[in-house]
Amino acid sequence: MRIRSRHIVLFAILLAGTASHAQKTVEGFYVDLNNDSIPATFKLPKRIPAYLADQFDGRTDFSLLKEEIEVVNKAGGTQRLTPRDIKGFGFTYNSNAYKLLAKPVSPYQKKFLTPEVTGKKLKMYQYTIVHPGTAYHWDGFPAKGGSSPWKEYYWTFEKHDRTYLFLNSNMRKKELVKMLKDFFKDDPQMHELVESKFKGFILSGRHELIKSIAEAYNEG
């Protein structure tokens, strides 16, 4: 009887774990290439493990959505939409609103990005990759001597004339400063701002720093 009870308990634990990582569907919309808004049911990717949730400030990580979104049709089948197929999509999940737009991440590639700054002069979009590190086992239990999870950022700046700048958090400080100053080459005040912002540059605050530069340009 004890063996059977243990099997039942183990089965319940596995079942609970499977349910927490099950795929869900949400109601939302997407914008097609003709700028028409189409109501849709989306199939969401599986959640990241709970021990990584803090890396997203309590929001669920849908980093896989940067490549494509699955639309569920009335018959239960799915259609995959990529940044080449639509201009963007949106939905609400766990009281959080998500909006992703098809924007370039290089001169030759687009992804679905999250808008972070939406000013008249400059817009900034981003996507994030979370690296799990080695501080936890696959089941979420801590591992001795492992490295902590960390984020990798990718930013796209878009001026009103569709001039783009592509940055990422793997770039060195000197490279970031040069590229930002080149992008704002006709604005001496922005050159000074960039220099002053990076004087106290810390890796952990790089996203907030880049975002503050975009916000400052819109205020100028």
Quickly count the helices: 4
Overall number of strands:
10
Spatial separation of the terminal alpha carbons: 74 Å
The low-confidence parts are 5-22
Mean pLDDT: 81
Number of domains: 1
The major pleated sheet works out as: 10 strands, antiparallel
Principal-axes geometry comes out as globular
Radius of gyration based on Cα positions: 21 Å
**Structural class assignment:** alpha+beta
Strand arrangement in the largest pleated sheet: 4-3-2-1-5-6-7-8-9-10
> What helical percentage do the residues reach?
25-40%
* Percentage of residues in DSSP E strands: 35-45%
Could you name the key traits of this structure?
220 residues, alpha+beta, ten-stranded antiparallel β-sheet, 10 strands
Structure write-up:
- The structure is a single chain.
- The chain starts with a helix and ends with a helix.
- The chain has helices spanning 2-20, 173-183, 188-199, 206-219, and strands at residues 25-32, 37-43, 69-72, 78-81, 86-93, 96-106, 109-118, 122-131, 150-159, 164-168.
- 25% of the residues lie in helices and 35% in strands.
- With 220 residues, the chain is of the alpha+beta class.
- The chain is globular, with a radius of gyration of 21 Å.
- Strands 4-3-2-1-5-6-7-8-9-10 form a 10-stranded antiparallel sheet.
- It has one domain (24-219).
- The chain is built from 4 helices and 10 strands.
- Helix 2 (173-183) packs antiparallel against helix 3 (188-199) and helix 3 (188-199) packs antiparallel against helix 4 (206-219).
